[in-house]
Design the sequence.
């Protein structure tokens, strides 16, 4: 393929933060009709590069040329006007506006100088139908799930992009079906000659859709490769700067220990149908299901985020009522929530404070954790989980997405829980860390901790679960254990119910 | 907008109607055209101020300067009409220019210096009141035939109620505000910024322009309210309308707009104003409350309205949650 | 620890120094302190003494604001507390009992606000607006609209008396501020309050009892306001329900903001708020000493406050920082601060 | 015979006003008049609303204590149209005389003059720098009482106002501002204090005492209103003179109304109440006793 002129050519892009060089002399060339994957570990600088390109950050050096003309977008509005549509990491839409208003913000159809709401809704419905969404665009965005919001965000960006479409981890909260749909949209756009930047930590997806990939490590480009020419291992090695140990296999599970928690007829009206569940020490219970199947609801009701309104719970044979997270924590439960931005991090507090927060809350306000002790705990987990940061004193919001996730995990590990509930623990985590977290889950299990893990990645669930509970429509519809566990079995369990 | 977001609006409307019926049942004279006309005329300046406040609060901000701006406008008009021979219409244009510019300047400071609106407009409140004092500490009467003419424009309804120009002006302001908020890009941007300023910016909302515009609207409408106030009292007085900002905020909130921004309707504000006016009329009709009981009752009614709204809000969200739950199951 | 606090409050210290210097400019004898009739006597003492109510209010207000709230009712609570204390001593109660009753009234008011905010989830500004409007009425109900004068020497001493030649209010506000500051910083409360102010949902999920914490800060604010109310009443030997604490809530909020605390909650410094209160009192003193005609009072105050706030605004501070940095080792960052990233913002 | 009268009061910002409200209610009760009371919380717009409300209710007469002199034409016209007589209390307004029946007020400029004349007489030829505590900036008593006092001392070259600040009519501010006066002028350089109301004077007396001076001797004190507490101070020799502003404005107003209802007698347009001077020579203990239950 003779390379035409790049649509977008960024050269020598640099960005410095106090105490960190986020980007150093980065070059990125995008050609029309290509999907260009941007890869790298957590904190490699992918999101920062995007923000520099679209003017959300002011870059500290470098030039950007669009179709050969030098541009200097000062803010996202600028780049939008230039034909660069962007979906930033984490959904960035306005929950207080309707779906249609979100889709058309800034470019509403006008009639006689006024916004034509009817046309806007109609067009919104049509646009969304292309993405397989048949929802009422007149309802508030807030009333839809994260996944739907993500699709709306993508639709908006696509509509806005005349030349370049940038997607920063768009698939992190999507299901297989939705991913497939997104890919068909991308293919279509590709055909139209758009250049598409695609950031993800799912390498299969990279290989499925991308033409080329640029790999970043520590803010530097370590290579740009045509994907047809390389193998997955090569890419991983480039990303990590080392070889990834052979993927962890389904390790033999040692015998689970004593019965820890037993739930009977546990549920919450309007949220999750009553279910039974038992979990022993040294056991991982996986929660599988499609989007909205009730995995998060199950996790939340066990942890008391929403109090169960029916059923009984027994902890080591003793009756127990959990109506709020505090009680759960007192009983040595822990929950690492799904939405780290709104439910997890406390943005302006330092990483250190974020890590010790739950421990401190459990100890009570009158027994402060001494600074040195806090430092030690935080330091320990930063090393153990390989959290990349400039200093423990930096606000956690400045960490990259994946590193925030790890810091949250550290918060809960620091409380030394007996039951650890993880809701999408690997969302937004790079391949290296992904393997580490799976290893960590297995480690914890070996040490006798009980875990409940909700995840959309079936392979992952299969890898570490002792048992897998399958959910559908907020109801438990099956349970797999031991040798039964396989991706196929899960899919069948879900589908079987579908047929029913 | 969907039904559920309009709910607080309907609740406010229902509350007003219910309260009015109850009041009229106790004091039949309250159902007269006089009382209705008074509700409009007496609350015209507050109503106009509250429109500007709605813009500001929808965007997640607050404007404490409006009361002072009204007072300043009055004194400015009175002094300039006394000292010079310019036509009041010219003076109106001039004062609207000043107050709009003042609002825009506050918006600029809020945006460019990244300072909280509460504090910027608090300083603005001191400044405008101070400027009013500097112009004149005494109350200055306005005598001009144009004013007399404007004041003579009213329609006397059967039953003795006088529907005045200022009341009509207020209604007009509400209609205009509704169109701007729901039918223009600027209006949509106001809601967007109220939802989340950072996200709005990432979505390409011109934040600087919108923020400045919002406070300019508030300043300008406070200026307009000031003009209405001079028509109401034929004078400019530097001590006038102290604390009006709190009345306006209360009206906006009673009207169902969230102080955190991004959600609410200007029509709600209108009923908020009427409800507050009704509370006062009721207290006057009652006529037995002492000074302190008046305050306590106003506070209590404010509380009752907020709780009523909260309660209705809870009831409906619970219902909506149930509905969506059954959706998912079906 | 000490050093970082000092660094945090440096801007406030500099501004206070400037304001005091301006005072000297209009009145050269500003720093003179004499010992007269058993008490220290001088303008500087006045600033500390007259700043007492604002300082007390600012202490509570800082905590409330750190949780992303606001307390508009403090002025009215002052009036209530003053009225309670006055009616108690007039009714024959011992002054300590009267003070306790006033504090109880303040606590009740704080509790009410806290319940509305934490349990009923009413927006703080509206929740406290209710008591702001009604509270003054309640105070007037107690005094029946008149100034309730009293002559109890014990109570009067709290406002107009001295301890070791220093006016009592100075001792009180310093003691309260130190006590609150110590409890907050020596325990984990500071951290927990900040967490709740930054992200309440996350904090709740992390196991923090946000409700109790919220109620507690409004309670403290109510108590501080009550104490301020007692001092103000004791100072004039009478409870003036109409005017005690009128518009004081604005001064208190202003003090907190001049102290560099964000109205959006989170990180806070009580020390800085106290300096903010002294700065405001310094400005008031400047206006009184300048002898300008009264109609200029507000304009002067507004202009000084605007100047202070502009100097303190993140944008200007950042520019100053760059200016300094450009002379030192090169800091490679552009003058325009990066806009907050999407992850950065908490919930709105 | 069961007439209803609406009373639009400014608010309850001072003890004096509370007393006026109390006296008005007492007077109405004594005469068997139903009083509809509306507190305007210091806002003219609330007063206008109240008047309109009274008109809508069809009361038999309206008493108005106007917060400010201007801006009443329109609403009073409506009252006139409805044939409801309006009587102004304690302040006059800038409006055509046919819009109200009469005004029962003191002359506030005159009050300031009475205070000034007393001072002129009291100091004789001695040099006398005076400090002044003004009322709320912009309020009409503050403006008039300042004017009257200045006129009275204009002729006396030995008396001059050296410092003048607002004390907002409150005790607390009176005390604070006096403290500042004492420091910036030096207590020995102040011969007299003129306060626009007694509350500020009471606050200032405390400041003077705390500064180790003797109020009433070292610094002469003259103020206006004649509230109970100032008589207590005068009895103790800590204040020198006060000019009475009677809280009983309603009495004469009701007299007028009763006469009008009886046979249509129209009163004169201005019923001036007496601005009586009290000094330490009067029996302050007795005056205090007589006033202390009036709700001051
Ligand atoms: N405003 C900031 N101040 C200081 N450091 C920052 C700031 N923003 C980002 N960083 C740092 O810059 C680095 C790059 O972050 P970036 O978000 O670009 O990573 P990423 O490649 O997108 O990672 P992820 O896959 O986890 O999303 C991180 O180490 C982060 O901590
Ligand atoms: N099709 C849908 N329409 C409307 N709302 C939906 C839909 N699917 C899911 N939701 C909402 O999204 C939320 C997510 O559901 P839940 O957390 O139970 O799913 P999950 O299985 O954990 O999925 P995931 O965590 O992968 O999003 C629920 O609150 C649900 O109300
Ligand atoms: Mg990223
Ligand atoms: Mg989930």
Sequence:
């Amino acid at each position: 393929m003779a390379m035409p002129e790049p649509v977008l050519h960024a050269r020598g892009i640099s960005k410095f933060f106090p105490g960190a060089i986020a980007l150093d002399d980065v070059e990125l060339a995008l050609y029309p009709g290509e999907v260009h994957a941007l890869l790298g570990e957590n904190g490699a600088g992918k999101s920062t590069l995007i923000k520099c390109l679209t003017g959300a950050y002011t870059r500290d050096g470098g030039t950007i040329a669009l179709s050969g003309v030098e541009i200097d977008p000062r803010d996202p509005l600028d780049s939008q006007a230039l034909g660069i549509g962007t979906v930033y990491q984490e959904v960035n839409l306005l929950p207080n506006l309707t779906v249609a208003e979100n889709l058309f913000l800034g470019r509403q159809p006008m009639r006689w100088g006024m916004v034509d709401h009817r046309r806007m809704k109609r067009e919104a419905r049509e646009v969304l139908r292309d993405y397989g969404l048949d929802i009422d665009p007149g309802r508030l965005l807030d009333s839809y799930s994260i996944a739907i919001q993500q699709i709306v965000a993508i639709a908006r960006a696509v509509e806005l992009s005349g030349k370049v479409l940038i997607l920063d981890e768009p698939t992190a909260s999507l299901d297989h079906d939705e991913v497939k749909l997104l890919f068909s949209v991308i293919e279509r756009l590709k055909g139209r000659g758009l250049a598409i930047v695609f950031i993800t930590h799912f390498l299969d997806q990279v290989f499925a859709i991308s033409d080329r990939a640029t790999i970043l490590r520590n803010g530097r480009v370590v290579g740009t490769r045509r994907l047809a020419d390389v193998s997955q291992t090569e890419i991983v090695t480039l990303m990590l700067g080392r070889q990834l140990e052979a993927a962890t296999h389904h390790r033999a599970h040692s015998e689970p220990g004593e019965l820890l928690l037993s739930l009977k007829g546990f549920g919450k009206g309007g949220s999750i149908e009553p279910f039974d569940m038992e979990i022993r020490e040294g056991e991982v219970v996986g929660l599988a299901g499609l989007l909205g199947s009730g995995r998060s609801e199950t996790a939340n009701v066990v942890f008391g985020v929403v109090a169960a309104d029916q059923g009984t719970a027994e902890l080591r044979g003793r009756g127990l009522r959990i109506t709020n997270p505090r009680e759960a924590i007192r009983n040595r439960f822990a929950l690492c929530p799904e939405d780290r931005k709104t439910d997890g991090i406390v943005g302006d507090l330092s990483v250190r404070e974020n890590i010790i927060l739950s421990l401190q809350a459990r100890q009570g306000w009158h027994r402060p954790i001494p600074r040195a002790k806090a430092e030690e705990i935080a330091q320990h987990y930063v090393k153990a989980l390989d959290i990349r940061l400039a200093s423990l004193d930096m606000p956690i919001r400045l960490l990259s997405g994946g590193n925030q996730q790890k810091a949250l995990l550290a918060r809960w590990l620091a409380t030394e829980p007996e039951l650890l509930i993880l809701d999408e623990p690997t969302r937004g985590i790079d391949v290296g860390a992904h393997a580490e977290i799976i290893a960590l889950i297995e480690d914890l299990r070996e040490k006798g901790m009980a875990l409940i893990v909700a995840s959309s990645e079936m392979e992952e669930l299969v890898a570490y679960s002792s048992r897998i509970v399958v959910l559908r429509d907020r109801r438990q519809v099956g349970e797999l254990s031991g040798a039964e566990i396989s991706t196929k079995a899960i899919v069948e369990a879900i589908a079987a119910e579908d047929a029913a | 907008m969907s039904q559920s977001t309009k709910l607080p609006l309907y609740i406010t409307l229902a509350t007003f109607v219910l309260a009015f019926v109850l009041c009229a049942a106790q004091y039949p004279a309250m159902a007269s055209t006089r009382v209705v006309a008074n509700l409009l005329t007496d609350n015209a300046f507050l109503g106009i101020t509250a429109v500007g406040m709605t813009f500001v609060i929808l965007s997640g901000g607050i404007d404490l300067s409006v009361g002072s701006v009204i007072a300043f406008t009055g004194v400015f008009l009175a002094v300039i009409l006394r000292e010079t021979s310019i036509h009041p219409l010219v003076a109106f244009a001039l004062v609207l220019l000043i107050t709009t510019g003042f609002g825009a300047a506050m918006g600029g400071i809020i945006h460019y210096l990244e300072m909280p609106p509460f504090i910027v407009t608090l300083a603005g409140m001191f400044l405008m009141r101070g400027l009013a004092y500097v112009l004149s500490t005494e109350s200055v009467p306005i005598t001009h035939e144009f004013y007399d003419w404007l004041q003579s424009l009213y329609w006397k309804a059967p039953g003795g109620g006088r529907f005045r120009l200022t009341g009509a002006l207020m209604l007009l302001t509400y209609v205009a505000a509704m169109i701007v908020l729901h039918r223009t890009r600027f209006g949509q941007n106001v809601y967007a910024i109220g939802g989340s300023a950072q996200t709005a910016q990432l979505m390409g909302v011109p934040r600087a322009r919108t923020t400045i515009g919002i406070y300019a609207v508030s300043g300008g409408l406070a200026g307009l309210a000031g003009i209405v106030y001079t028509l109401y009292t034929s004078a400019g007085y530097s001590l006038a309308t102290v604390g009006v900002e709190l009345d306006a905020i209360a009206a906006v909130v009673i009207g169902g707009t969230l102080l955190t921004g991004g959600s609410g309707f200007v029509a709600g504000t209108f009923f908020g104003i009427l409800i507050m006016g009704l509370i006062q009329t009721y207290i006057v009709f009652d006529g037995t409350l002492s000074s302190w009981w008046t305050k306590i009752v106003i506070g209590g009614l404010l509380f009752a309205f907020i709780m009523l709204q909260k309660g209705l809000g809870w009831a409906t969200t619970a219902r909506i949650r149930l509905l969506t739950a059954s959706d998912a199951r079906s | 620890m000490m050093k970082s606090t000092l660094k945090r409050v440096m801007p406030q210290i500099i501004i206070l120094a400037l304001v005091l210097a301006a005072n000297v400019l209009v009145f050269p004898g500003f720093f003179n302190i004499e010992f007269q009739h058993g008490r220290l006597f001088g303008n500087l003492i006045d600033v500390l003494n007259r700043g007492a109510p604002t300082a007390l209010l600012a202490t509570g207000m800082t905590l409330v604001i750190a949780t992303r709230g606001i307390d508009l009712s403090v002025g009215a609570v002052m009036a209530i507390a003053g009225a309670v204390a006055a009616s108690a001593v007039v009714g024959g109660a011992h002054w300590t009992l009267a003070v306790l009753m006033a504090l109880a009234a303040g606590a009740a008011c704080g509790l009410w606000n806290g319940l509305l905010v934490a349990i009923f989830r009413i927006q703080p500004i509206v929740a406290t607006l209710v008591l702001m409007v009604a509270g003054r009425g309640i105070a007037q109900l107690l005094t029946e609209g008149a100034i309730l004068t009293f002559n109890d020497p014990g109570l009067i001493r709290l406002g107009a008396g001295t301890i070791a030649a220093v006016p009592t209010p100075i001792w009180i506000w310093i003691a309260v501020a130190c006590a609150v500051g110590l409890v907050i910083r020596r325990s984990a409360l500071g951290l927990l309050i900040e967490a709740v102010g930054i992200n309440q949902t996350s904090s709740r999920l992390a196991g923090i009892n946000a409700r109790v914490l919220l109620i507690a800060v409004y309670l403290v604010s109510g108590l501080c306001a009550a104490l301020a109310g007692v001092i103000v009443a004791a100072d004039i030997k009478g409870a003036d329900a109409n005017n005690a604490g009128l518009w004081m809530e604005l001064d208190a909020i202003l003090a907190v903001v001049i102290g560099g605390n964000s109205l959006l909650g989170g990180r806070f410094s009580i020390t800085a708020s106290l300096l903010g209160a002294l700065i405001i009192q310094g400005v008031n003193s400047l206006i009184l000493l300048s002898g300008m005609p009264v109609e200029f009072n507000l304009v002067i105050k507004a202009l000084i406050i605007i100047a202070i706030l502009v100097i303190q605004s993140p944008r200007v501070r950042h520019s100053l920082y760059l200016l300094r940095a450009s002379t030192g080792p090169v800091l490679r960052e552009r003058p325009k601060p990066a806009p907050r990233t999407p992850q950065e913002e908490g919930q709105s | 015979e069961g007439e209803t009268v609406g009373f639009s009061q400014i608010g309850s910002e001072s003890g004096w006003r509370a007393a006026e409200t109390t006296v008005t209610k007492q007077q109405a009760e004594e005469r068997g008049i139903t009083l509809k009371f509306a507190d305007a919380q210091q806002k003219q717009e609330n007063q206008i609303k109240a008047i309109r409300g009274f008109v809508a209710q069809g009361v038999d007469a309206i008493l108005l204590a106007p917060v400010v002199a201007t801006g009443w034409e329109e609403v009073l016209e409506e009252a006139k149209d409805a044939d409801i007589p309006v009587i102004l209390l304690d302040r006059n307004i800038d409006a055509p005389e046919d819009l109200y029946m009469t005004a029962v007020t003191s002359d506030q400029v005159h009050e300031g003059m009475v205070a000034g004349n007393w001072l002129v007489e009291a100091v004789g030829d001695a040099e006398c720098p005076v400090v002044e505590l003004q009322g709320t900036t912009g309020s009409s008593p503050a403006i008039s009482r300042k004017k009257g006092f200045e006129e009275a001392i204009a002729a006396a070259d030995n008396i001059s106002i050296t410092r003048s600040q607002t004390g907002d009519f409150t005790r607390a501010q009176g005390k604070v501002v006096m403290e500042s006066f004492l420091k910036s002028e030096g207590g020995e350089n102040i011969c007299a204090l003129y306060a626009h109301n007694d509350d500020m004077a009471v606050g200032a007396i405390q400041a003077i005492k705390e500064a180790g001076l003797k109020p009433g001797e070292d610094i002469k004190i003259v103020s206006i209103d004649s509230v109970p507490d100032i008589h207590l101070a005068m009895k103790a020799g800590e204040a020198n003179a006060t000019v009475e502003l009677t809280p009983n404005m309603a009495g004469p107003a009701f007299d007028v109304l009763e006469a009008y209802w009886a046979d249509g007698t129209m009163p004169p347009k201005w019923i001036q109440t007496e601005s009586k001077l009290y000094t330490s020579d009067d029996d302050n203990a007795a005056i205090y006793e007589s006033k202390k239950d009036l709700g001051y």
User: Anything to note?
Assistant: Residues A 46-47, 89, 168, 400-401 surround magnesium ion (ligand 3) (CB under 6 Å). The CA atoms of residues 109 and 222 of chain C lie 6 Å apart.
